[in-house]
Design brief:
about 300 residues, UDP-galactose 4-epimerase, domain 1, 11 helices, 12 strands, 2 domains, Rossmann fold, about 15% strand, alpha/beta, 3-stranded mixed beta sheet, about 40% helix, 7-stranded parallel beta sheet
Length: about 300
């Protein structure tokens, strides 16, 4: 039996780790990215414009599974509105052309403000520009399935932390590494409010599982989350590192004051509701379907400490 070809679009926070895991699982793996930079040995690399449907179709010829792990080029409302739909349309075209499953890494912005825990059936009620991009994307996937025969499954993740989390993540590896140097970790909103974090290795394993699972087409899953206040998560990492936990809080009013001079902070105002109150997610559907996957906060803290010490 020949190897299946799995094609990963994007080699950033999640894509690179996903490609390595798929290779370890015995698949043939190809990564599509903007540049020709090398990835792990044994993985094919194709460089090009992933917003071009013709290119996406050619780059995925022979594939059984495609993974959408791309982000727009900038964390701005304009980049999201212009680039994300074009990326999505190209991957829909490729998946339909080859009758391949499209596995989509999504986030939680589309729900907007919700009382209580979000489930996969919670109404998509976002009102901000980035949230509306995700609302439109969810509707487009359903439309493509109904009208074009698209086979897809979506995995929605919370805020990334752990190995692989990029610098834009609030609890990125560089931010947590600062604890070891005696510096504080910057937290916005209410650091004591429950928050749904996603441990990057869990996201990687979750997407790989969705790529090969039976009877998941047309479904959306919340990937495993670590539900814990940000302050508590920092404390657990500090304890695993053997250092004192230090947190520097930034309340909403200060975020608004600094937004005009720090563009990233201005972009964060749209989703401040995720940080200034409990932000909870029900991941039970995924955990019931894939009971072996998912990491608790203590284990995640130990992995982070080991990675920082390496």
């Amino acid at each position: 039996m020949s190897q299946q070809l799995h094609v990963v679009f994007g080699a950033g926070q999640v894509g690179a780790g996903l490609a390595a895991l798929l290779l370890a699982q015995g698949h043939r793996v190809r990564v599509v990215r903007r540049s020709q930079r090398d990835v792990a040995s044994g993985i094919e690399v194709v460089a090009g414009d992933a917003t071009d449907p013709a290119f996406a179709i050619e780059a995925t010829r022979g594939a059984q599974v495609l993974y959408h792990c791309m982000n727009p080029s900038a964390y701005t409302a304009s980049a999201w509105a212009q680039e994300y739909p074009r990326q999505g349309e190209a991957l829909i075209a490729a998946a339909v052309a080859h009758d391949a499953r499209l596995v989509v890494l999504d986030n939680l912005y589309g729900y907007g403000v919700v009382e209580g825990a979000r489930t996969e059936s919670t109404r998509m009620g976002a009102e901000g520009p980035k949230g509306l991009v995700r609302v439109a994307w969810a509707a487009r996937l359903e439309q493509a399935a109904a009208e074009q025969g698209l086979r897809y499954v979506a995995g929605r993740a919370g805020d990334f932390f752990g190995p692989g989390a990029g610098e834009q993540a609030l609890l990125s590896m560089p931010a947590l590494a600062a604890l070891g140097r005696g510096w504080p970790v910057l937290l916005i909103g209410d650091p004591s409010a429950q928050h749904a974090f996603s441990f990057v290795p869990d996201v990687v394993a979750g997407l790989a599982a969705l790529g090969s699972a039976d009877e998941v087409d047309g479904r959306t899953f919340h990937l495993p989350v670590v539900q814990v206040p940000p302050r508590r998560l920092v404390e657990e990492v500090a304890a695993a590192l053997g250092v004192r936990s230090r947190v520097l809080g930034m309340p909403g009013w200060l975020l608004g004051l600094l937004a005009p001079v720090v563009p990233l902070l201005g972009e964060l105002r749209e989703t401040l509701y995720q940080w200034d109150r409990p932000f909870e997610v029900d991941d039970s559907a995924f955990r019931m379907r894939f009971p072996a996957l998912g990491t608790d906060s203590a284990r995640a803290a130990a992995v982070i400490a080991a990675a920082l010490a390496a």
